[in-house]
Amino acid sequence: MRSALVIAAKDLRQRARDRSVYVFAIAAPLGLAAIFGFVFNPISDADFTATFAVANVDQGPLAAPLVDGVLGGLADGGNVNLVHATSAEEAARLVEGDGERADQDVDAAIIIPAGFSARVQTGRPTELRVVQNANASLASTLALAIVQEYARQLDYVQGAVTTVVSSDPARLADAAAIAQRAGATPRPVSVRDVSATIKQLDNTTFYAAGLAAFFLFFTVQFGVNSLLEERHAGTLNRLLAAPLPRWSIILGKAITAFGLGLVSMLILIVGTSFILGADWGNPAGVALLVVAATASAIGVMAMVSALARTSEQGEVFSSIAAVGLGIIGGTFFPINQAGGVLASLRYVTPHAWFLQGLGDLAGGSIGDIVPAVAALLAFTAVTSGIALALLRRRLNP
Amino acid sequence: MKALAIAASNLRRFARERSNVFFVLILPMLLILVLGSVFGRGFEPRVGLVAPGTGDPTSALVEGLEAHEGFAVHRHDDRDTVVRAVERGELEAGLILPPEFDDAIPAGDAVEIDFIARPGQDSLSLRRTIGALLAEQMALPRIAAFVAREGDVPYEQALAQATAVTGQTAGVKVATAVAGEAFIGRRNWGQFDLGAQQQLMLFMFLTSLAGSAALVQTRRLGIARRMFATPTTVRTILLGEGLGRFGVALVQGVYIVLGTMVIFGVRWGDPLSAILIVLAFGLVGSGAAMLMGALFSNDQQAVPVGVFLGLGTAALGGCMMPLYVMELFAPTVWTVAHLMPHAWALDAFEILALRDGGLGDVLPFLGILLGYAAAFYLLAIWRLRAVLTR
């Protein structure tokens, strides 16, 4: 055991002198997390607001529930801004803006034409108009949905009155009262809003965690690949000739990789938390996930390295594996949004489990990370097993 | 000519580097494929649906939801799966129909559907869209329920009356129109076009920078010194090295342009203009690589720093978050993006590929790119004259 620690200490001292470790392990992930945050946050943090231009030309009793009731209610709630236009043309112009690109500020125009209320009350065909801004699909869809729902509400009342009166024409005199009662009748299907917790990392933390996971595999590679480097340099034979148990050499390398990985992750977690405001979550949970992830990274990179025959080949395989797994694992963009094959494929990588564990931790408690930790440890066990089997042959020439 | 020989040997070293098969050839196409699949089709909200009933009301509602073009419906068997998917962001919302749905509607009873979404306003639009859909679907049952109560008639009879009558009423129509031209344009913006453009810039720059290690090696291994010892001027050596870097950038660029044309059917616009932009951006990338090769003395460091700078400048320059999104939501970011050469090249390709522009339209952008290239090269040459043999 002591010899393993000596080997590890020597390796770590060697690494500390090599500045490329600092770039890969600390500077690159931290720098990129800051850059990604700068670029992506303003866009994903942008709160959804909609601005509608409303032209209530009708000003009648059936326009008020839409304008003051529904739209006014949304405006009071802060979700929607209303701009009042005096005519349909003005409203449409506000959406169209000036020149070739629609003005960003108005997402849709809602136009209630003149005579609307009167026509509805006398059962004549009429229409409500919605002008949508081509670039504001979410907001203009909202406008359309609101107007459609209102139109269907009016249709319902009209249909209810008409049906009642058609079977009993005497009740036509009662039409207004019937309409009122119809309007007051609850819907057969009502929607209950249920709020779900957010089991997802916020954007800053997502980039920080994703990049940390991505570069972790490069960091541990330094420790893992050193076995091949020693072979290349000739020092491996000397280690083998020394009165050391074989396993202490492997253990020494593993300790190096583990130490490098843990220290770099710690620095990244602290760095991104303080400098970028990332919120990694419950420290105990994060610690468990980081340890498991580092172990899985060592296992994976050891296996990849063991498949190579020269140190150079090992580096090539390792960097391809690290980049490939990182991308498939969704460290650069949330690949779970892709759906389908790509979203399922990511579970083949430890990265995806690490990120999912952090996400579940964010919305829940430490118990929620058990599946992720278990998966990461399984990766470790399987890949380390293969790596050891391959290495045993190398170390027993 | 000697400079060409130097350049050729650089390209041979580049070709012999095994890892380049993955990083230069496979990775760009892989990324373009993934990006196009994930982001290329525009964002369609996903709604999870749990509908245990098998009767007519359920079928009608499910059919209506699935036919709606504003969102995609994913059927699931249980509520917990849907809730977890919404929590993780794999679904934008969830709709849970109660088991008694099919019995309640014909009886005229009220029933509740759960709409599950994360807190925040993003789901508001989806929520109201589903509300509007429900209002349309449930119009007849609602009338029937009311008429049944009013006239004290059985529900089935009321429903028959309502069906007969509402076919004759005019109803309130909702007329829609769309104003303005979408940024993405009404023309065919291919699914992979934007991703291809972005990855072209990213990889041309990244491969150049990562390859700058070769120049550092040339210096450190004494190759430069040996070249200098021959009757060769510094100018020739620098030209050769510059051409070598340019060659590497061009190989990457031409490969991506042709490859995406063949594999994904990506359109690059007017051929002459496109070639000129690729050449100009190749000069920018190779200039940056020359500068890096001049500034670094350790080729082990040059690679990770090159990767970091390559990814960082690409992210800032609009190769990850599209420029048009920046322009819409974050003008400051858009301005910063245009400090990077990538943004200017991407703007040029938007004009070529999307707006069918021609050479005249992209000349200003070519000028700006050549300006960047000149600055990089001049700085690199100035520095290299001093350190070429160190």
Q: How would you describe this protein?
A:
- By secondary structure, chain A is α/β, with parallel strands linked by helices.
- Chain A contains 15 helices and 5 strands.
- Chain A is elongated.
- Residues 99-103 of chain A have low confidence and may be disordered.
- Chain B has 390 residues and is α/β, with parallel strands linked by helices.
- A 4-stranded mixed β-sheet of chain B has the order 2-1-3-4.
- The relative contact order of chain B is 0.11.
- The chains are: A alpha/beta (397), B alpha/beta (390).
- At the A-B interface, helix 2, helix 4, strand 4, helix 6 and helix 7 of A face helix 2, helix 4, strand 4, helix 6 and helix 7 of B.
- Strand 4 of chain A pairs parallel with strand 5 (172-179) of chain B.
Which descriptors would you attach to this protein?
heterodimer; A: 397 residues; alpha/beta; four-stranded mixed beta sheet; 15 helices; B: 390 residues; 7% strand; elongated
* Estimated share of beta-strand residues of chain A: 5-15%
Number of strands of chain A: 5
What overall geometry of chain A do the principal axes of the alpha carbons give? elongated
Q: What is the residue-averaged pLDDT of chain A?
A: 86
Indicate the multimeric state: heterodimer
Walk across the major sheet of chain B and give the strand order.
2-1-3-4
Share in helix of chain A: 55-70%
- Beta strands of chain B, count: 5
Count of individual helical segments of chain A? 15
The major sheet of chain A is characterized as: 4 strands, mixed
